[in-house]
Hints:
Elements: H1 3-17, E1 19-21, H2 22-29, H3 33-45, E2 49-52, E3 55-58, H4 67-70, H5 75-86, E4 93-97, E5 116-120, H6 123-132, E6 137-141, E7 145-147, E8 152-154, H7 156-162, E9 169-172, E10 176-178, E11 182-185, H8 191-200, E12 203-207, E13 219-222, E14 229-232, H9 241-244, E15 249-252
Parallel strand pairs: 4-5, 4-9, 5-6, 9-12, 12-14, 14-15
Antiparallel strand pairs: 1-3, 2-3, 7-8, 10-11, 11-13
Amino acid sequence: xxxxxxxxxxxxxxxxxxxxxxxxxxxxxxxxxxxxxxxxxxxxxxxxxxxxxxxxxxxxxxxxxxxxxxxxxxxxxxxxxxxxxxxxxxxxxxxxxxxxxxxxxxxxxxxxxxxxxxxxxxxxxxxxxxxxxxxxxxxxxxxxxxxxxxxxxxxxxxxxxxxxxxxxxxxxxxxxxxxxxxxxxxxxxxxxxxxxxxxxxxxxxxxxxxxxxxxxxxxxxxxxxxxxxxxxxxxxxxxxxxxxxxxxxxxxxx
Length: 254
């Protein structure tokens, strides 16, 4: 197991139990106590937990994970979802792509021969696009305050910049989808940009793997009526029924 994957598992354990023990974690992962201590120290620096003698305590339940931790979860599902989402992108589209860890995979599946305008507040997405070196894409970075934790920009400057554009398609993800007409998010700094771009777009695409269903978030992002398409990796259960009732098109990525 890679270091970042192990940290994700540690966060899941501490969110479930409220506290963790170095000895127990070392046995669980079959690694040294020194390695576990280093992981816990790193997570404390990121504000995810509080170190104690012999272990750690939960610092803040539901806090937004740093991008490197979120990006290491559900990698196969996120790739499948983004590959399917890219099939809905057409010549001369103007896209807004948010800074969620799921959407980072989208850029690699967009057809390189079509002309596009891509708006984003994601620094990582821009860096990935730079590696592709596609001159058919016009990339527009929304200005604002740089958030090194999540490699994004946010704030009033970002909102003013975003207010100039009307993308015909917005691609976004979320922290959770609940049955009471709520798509929720956990990024306090970036949520207003996402709300604006969802509202402005002719078509809004929600990209969410199966772990997002029946999961609450800290803030209301949008209602089901605002979601034109939900692209997910699992529709074999009834979790999608309440979205269908609102008119959302459910698309299976496989």
